[in-house]
Amino acid sequence: MKVTPIAIVVVGALLATMPWLGLPPFYDSFLYLVLSWVVLATSWNILSGYAGYFSFGHGAFFGAGLYTTTTLAAKFNWPFLWTLPAAAGVAALLGLGLGAVVFRVKRVRGELFALLTLAVTFVLATIVLNTPIDGGPGVYLNSVPVPPIGPTQAGTFYLLALGAAVGTLLIAWTIVRSKFGAGLFAIHDDEDAAEVLGVPTYGYKLGALAISAGLAGVAGGIHALFISYVTASEVFSITVPLTVVLMSVLGGTRHWAGPAVGAAVITVLLYSFTAADYAVAGKAMMGAVLIATILFMPDGILLRVLRLFGYGRRPPPVARSQDVMGSAAHREAVPKEAPALTTEVPVVVDLAAADSVVVAAMPSPASAATRAAAPITSRGSSDVLLRAHGLSKSFKGVKALAGVDVEVRAGEILGLLGPNGSGKSTFINVVSGHFAASGGRVTFEGREIGDLSAHRIAQSGISRTYQIPRPFAHLSVLENVAIAAMFGGATLSARAATDEARRWLQFTGLEDKATARPDELNLHQRKFLELARALASRPRLVLLDEVLCGLTPSEIDGAVALIRRIRDQGATIVFVEHVMRAVMALTDRVVVFNHGQLLAEGVASDVMKRPDVMTAYLGRAHA
Amino acid sequence: MLEVRDLHVAYGAAPALWGVTLRVAEGELLCVVGPNGAGKTTLINAIAGILRARSGVISMAGNELQSLPPHRYCAAGIAVVPEGRRLFTKMTVLENLELGSYLPAAKARRSESLEQALALFPMLKEKLTSPAGELSGGQQQMVAIARALMARPRLLLLDEPSLGLSPLIVEDMFGAIRRINAEGMSVLLVEQNVAMAMHVSTRAYVLEEGRIVAEGAPDELLARPEIQRAYLGL
Amino acid sequence: MSGFAWPSFNLLTQSILSGIFVGALYGLMGLGLGLSWGLLRLINLAHFAFAFLAAYLCYQLAHKGIDPLLSLALIVPLFFAIGAALHWVMARFALTPFSSLLLTFGLTGIIESLIQSIWTADFRKLESRYAEMKFKVGELFVPIPELITLVLAVGLAFAIWAVLRFTDAGRAMRAAAEDAPVAAAFGVNERALSLVLAGTCAALASVAGVCVALLFSLAPSQIYAWIGVVFAAVMLGGLGSAWGPLVAGLLLGISESVTMALTSPSWAPLVSFTLLILVLLLRPGKAGT
């Protein structure tokens, strides 16, 4: 049994004795508020902090739960306690409905998602205000009996909120340690890369939203009876959504206890201002705290304090612009490197068309534990592993791929060559599911994969690396690789995935960097991290995208040796590469792309001597 | 005219250029060739002021530029045609060209420059009011070159102008580049299409993995086995 | 809940007219917000707080006998300076649009407290000589303060459009918004231009604030009442556009007031927010960066 959940329950039990201690009733009410905010902030954080989808709609779920209880208890005379699960249910359903629609629209992330959720809150408020749910004058709950759980009414509410808080914290803690949580954190850093690694991003986001909403609904239900007179304008005001953001950002969005710390600090601070007759200044203080947090402590108080005591790691020194919400929203299809120069000149990373190398399937590693080694297929066997038929992809009228037919044979190393803009990367992106094809078919091991979502393709046994490495910035090297092991073709449990990850770090020579952050690695190491991540899912097809680009000659030699070792274990590799000596040394066959079409195919040394290929690379003079 | 001495450029922890030294004489058409990832674009961006160098000197007609803010490079006489064109796609072709002549000296001669640009690329006449993003790759490349010419520079920087273009258009474009140089403009051209680049230039450097590894006349370089090896693996 | 009732023709046209007026104010309010978001990539929630601060200043100056329209001569330069100063500070930290949203939300809280401490939370109404002025066009009433707002909204949108479209500085700003490094390579001093732009956005907010003071009662809590509908106008109209928020604002204003005439005032917010949601879902590319 883990210590933390026990500690939470024990502390909860101890706190539960408070109403009987004979303290002034003020304490019950004040602590009720603190605990209620703990529930709201922690539940908000489950989607918004862990996955990076900052929502301004928490008020909607709180309000939905609140009005569910109000309606059921005041109008239909349900016993109050029974309304609470209903409140959770209604709020969760609202969340599910919202997520089901919104998460399908890929571009709605970041500030757009935040604004959309805010709009939903106001829509809900208007509906509540104009229908019999409220109707305008508000609803009274004085006639609803308060269950006699505590010695006083205030005590009862306190205990209910305490129960909700303990439950919420336990849920948050469990999520953080689970595979679900790992997936959410991966989504936070780079949703598209996570999807391609096998994380079911749509389903996970939906789950996180539903849980978050349900818990907010419970807090709302309890609050309904606490305030006993509810009005739509109070309930759906901008206070709840913005305060939970403030509390979580202040406390720290990456830690399960961060929002709770923030909730406690803010509630106490606000109260001390109000009590001292500085209520107005209280709001200013909150504003100042928010500003200071965003500028100087984007990771929140809790982690700062923990770090002082030696726990936890310092944050990755990415540009501040990525700290508070380093979500996938700020990554376009091609990521930008964080400017490390302190001058005012913005650093521009020039990105050539990201050619990805399609790596053929990976057989299980020599030191495989749980799986029997896949039979090593002979080199250049005639079994076709992947077949693309007439594959096309257009972007706004530009034909990146114009109907290519490519066969990848099991066990071979296939080189994908061609000048810039010839469609090599696009091919990789389409096969791995990063883009949907505009036309044509792709079959893998006989099955159609063209219309599968990227995470299902990953789970079928295909993995890829990106030319510009896209590691999860906030996760350690080991955790990065473990994600692949958990969600890719191997689909291991969290513990087995960590072991598997370690194995692959050893294979790529990164084992002493296991606890480091990706930004601490140099380019060569980051490329190998990409490689380890691609291999950890035990794929049967690995797509490598210009893995050697940017490396020094000796580093290239090391990489070539590594790729050879991968192949020697029987892996099928397809790689896009420009470094010719590597192409000559490694490939069994090459295909050459030009202007989105297949130009040539065959053994490398033959193909490279052909006049049309030489023209494509060197231009006319050498035809 | 342009002198680059011992230039070091890095992206964060990853070095991209190591001690690059080169010079472009007045009226010269110089090309820098090299494989992907060699650092060619980094070099162009550093000379254009888009990237800040870690150390080294960039001097234009005797004036040192490397510690100036980016918007001062153009006034020193440098104009760039970036890789991938990087036009202002939401603005019209004409507006792009007008932006090219933003600085006062260029602005004063804007109509003259515009006439010259349209004489060079006549097919742009009908596209002046179209948003730049709607043009084809080849047309965009012409706009990008014209935009740079509008700045009336003394040195024109071209970064992989043939990228993603069909061979026929590439020919036309290099013809235009040659004409521009013939009229006295110094040009620094960076290219992956080695043959075309060597064909138009008088002198070439070879850049590999962030370092200059060769320099000389194009024909002589092309005959060398290491060039053949680097590009064809033969 | 009131039912549905067909209004008279007069009532309908008067509603449409008042929808035009309030919509113009939405557009004016949204002009600076949209410019900041579209061209500077900063979502300035404090825009609303600036507007209200200006409104309160106008109210205060009116007490000293200064005509609200004349007070613009003092208020506009003041807020231009404030906006530029704020941007100067914010530009030191590389903020994403989202961080700027949170940060300016904090700033809004501070400004709101400032307003409340000086003028209290009670509603305040600016008594100006324009308040009672109106004239009649046929059967329709055209109140002067509303007309002033409409004129200002249209005039400023036109001015901004003209600057962006026809001047070098405007082109430079648009170019820098799309690709700042390349714009700099052609001599555009993006730093200086963005300060001017930020100052302009704040100045626009202050003009909107003076209009609010002319038309409505002021209370600090009212700052937040505008956020939703103005964001809707900006996103519908397009970021960085001069005419967009005005047109969208008019659309929103008219649909709101017609809804109010047909059913009841409390259904009005549904219109703008539902439109906003639909735009976000169906054309997120247009609404986002």
Task: Using brief descriptors, characterize the structure shown.
heterotrimer; A: 623 residues; alpha/beta; Rossmann fold; 2 domains; 7-stranded mixed β-sheet; 4-stranded antiparallel β-sheet; 52% helix; 11% strand; elongated; B: 234 residues; 6-stranded mixed β-sheet; 35% helix
Task: Provide the fold topology.
The complex is a heterotrimer of chains A (623), B (234) and C (289).
Chain A: H1 3-16, H2 25-48, H3 58-75, H4 80-102, H5 110-130, E1 139-140, H6 153-177, H7 179-197, H8 201-227, E2 229-230, H9 232-235, H10 239-251, H11 258-275, H12 279-296, H13 301-308, E3 358-361, E4 384-395, E5 398-409, E6 413-417, H14 424-432, E7 439-444, E8 447-448, H15 454-460, E9 462-464, H16 477-487, H17 494-507, H18 523-536, E10 540-545, H19 553-568, E11 573-576, H20 580-586, E12 589-594, E13 597-602, H21 604-607, H22 611-618
Parallel strand pairs in A: 6-11, 6-12, 9-10, 10-11
Antiparallel strand pairs in A: 1-2, 3-10, 4-5, 4-7, 7-8, 12-13
Chain B: E1 2-11, E2 14-24, E3 29-33, H1 40-48, E4 55-60, E5 63-64, E6 78-81, H2 93-100, H3 104-108, H4 110-120, H5 137-150, E7 155-159, H6 167-182, E8 186-191, H7 194-200, E9 203-208, E10 211-216, H8 218-222, H9 225-232
Chain C: H1 9-40, H2 46-63, H3 68-90, H4 97-119, E1 124-125, E2 134-137, E3 140-143, H5 144-166, H6 168-178, H7 180-185, H8 190-215, E4 217-218, H9 227-237, H10 244-262, H11 268-282, H12 284-287
Antiparallel strand pairs in C: 1-4, 2-3
Helix pairs in contact in C: 1-5, 1-8, 1-9, 1-10, 2-3, 2-4, 2-8, 3-8, 5-6, 5-8, 6-8, 9-10, 9-11, 10-11
